Amino acid sequence: MPRYIAAVDQGTTSTRCILFDHSGRIAAVSQKEHQQIYPQPGWVEHDPLEIWQRTQEVCRQAVANAGARKGDIAAVGITNQRETTLVWDRRTGKPYYNAIVWQDTRTKSICDKLALDGGMDRFRGKVGLPVSTYFSGPKIRWILDNVPEARNAALSGDAVFGNIDTWEVWWLTGGPHGGAHVTDVTNASRTMLMNLETLDWDDEILAILGIPRSLLPRIVPSSDPQAWWATVADGPFGESIPVCGDLGDQQAALVGQTCFSPGEAKNTYGTGCFMLLNTGSEIVHSSSGLLTTLAYKLGELPAIYALEGSIAITGAVVQWLRDNLGLIQQSGDIELLARSVEDNGGIYFVPAFSGLFAPHWRSDARGVIVGLTRYINKGHIARAALEATAYQTREVLDAMERDSGVQLKILKVDGGMVVNNLLMQFQADILGVPVVRPVVAETTALGAAYAAGLAVGFWKNTDDLHLNWQVDRTWQPKMSPDQRQSLYRRWLKAVDRTLDWVE
Q1: Distance, C-alpha 62 to centroid of its chain
Q2: Is the omega angle on the peptide bond into residue 130 within 30 degrees of 0, that is, cis?
């Protein structure tokens, strides 16, 4: 009888494999970081072969850590950094170029040209997204324009594209020797190429961008009982196991938080910050700068949609303070440093390192720290950096409530930053609603496990998953409404200072 579901969580800075038991608890985990490559200002890349190597290592180690034997693992689910774009040779597995990361802004000129006819919302009616450097479609176009080998291979049919989920599944299931070239609806919805209604690639947009359909993977449900692909027997799991769950990381967290009813929302605090609101089977188009995206699709059931607010830089600010400025030795040190002062000392830190995402969508913005005086010390900078995450979340929540007409009652949170109690309390204060952290905070990997487990009957239905979800801690708002509005007003003033920096 299988004891575990394996989840491969391929994130922006690291790759993890986690084995979950039937109660949704972690049985074993292994994690390794990979290199961040910055060839030019605004460019961010990953080495896809390093990512695949890290994936093999953490999968083997997690299996060893759990003492798992053959037959113990029922299925594998994949979750991944979304929008990160890769084109490789289907015959050899060799990438034609490094993976272009979701944060990368090199495609601004491509996006500007696309927006000349119809503006930034040119394709929004079909794909739910603005024209932006964030998404995969313009990144594919850049690779085809700038890498002659990739362009020629695309024309001959030898090249294939994938977000990182597709790359992982392809290698896990055999790579050049019959690997499955697939992606799920959630990842496909982040390319700017998939029609939200048909759940298929849009031929008109493909023609405008000059992307051959033969380059693209087959789109499948997020949880697929009909999955015919499996890990190769000599692969990192040491046996043939169904790969039948696939979700973009933020949608995976929504599933892991069991937000299966319309109106339920979660916020994930990672490298960036991402709030998703379940809108059910209804496609809700945003007039407030949010994204309309796929939440998940379970087998033959109707697709479920979501509104999303994407914030580019949150946890990455902490890494920047650590690696670039040396203010802290470890990421976890930031809370103690921020607690060394009573407040932010009057400064605001807007980390628009790669422009502003939701609800502004301004690629011309760049980061600022405003309000500096001789009084300010590194504690104030640390505190302002944490508060920036909470303020940006407030902007997204305001937009979400305008679009959906739903007033949020609580915010479920997950991700690496939710261990920071100072941040979580300030988040509750600036939102004016309770913030709730579950017992299992690794909800991204858990969501991928749930998708795979539902497909093979490890869990019967979503009711089983609700039974697993338990509260670890709740933060109640303590700030007065007047103070909340005063602080937020100054934040919005600081945001204005970031705009029109890149000409």
Answers
A1: 23
A2: no
SS3 373: coil
Task: Label residue 228 by pLDDT band (50, 70, 90).
Answer: low
pTM above 0.90, yes or no: no
| Best CA proximity match to 57, nearest among 179, 177, 237, 233 | 237
Give which of 290, 302, 222 is closest to 254, Cα–Cα: 222
Q: Which of 60, 3, 456 is nearest to 245 (CA)?
A: 456
Annotate 460-473 with three-state secondary structure: CCHHHHHHHCCEEE
DSSP 419: G
Q: How confident is the model at residue 288 (pLDDT cuts 50, 70, 90)?
A: confident
Amino acid at 89: D
Alpha helices in 341-442 (DSSP H): 378-404, 421-431
Give the span between the Cα atoms of 21 and 125, in whole angstroms. 41
Position with higher pLDDT, 256 vs 227 = 256
Tell me whether residue 147 is exposed, middle or buried, using C-beta atoms within 10 angstroms of its C-beta: 0 to 12, 13 to 18, 19 or more: middle
The residue among 216, 254, 249 whose CA lies nearest residue 81 is: 249
Paired tokens of 401: 């409530």
Q: How far apart are CA 341 and CA 355, in angstroms?
A: 29
Give residue for tokens 């579901």.
5
Three-state secondary structure string covering 12-52:
CCEEEEEEECCCCCEEEEEEEECCCECCCCCCCEECHHHHH
Closest CA to 356 of 405, 315, 417, 311: 311
Q: Which residues pair with 242 in a beta bridge?
A: 230
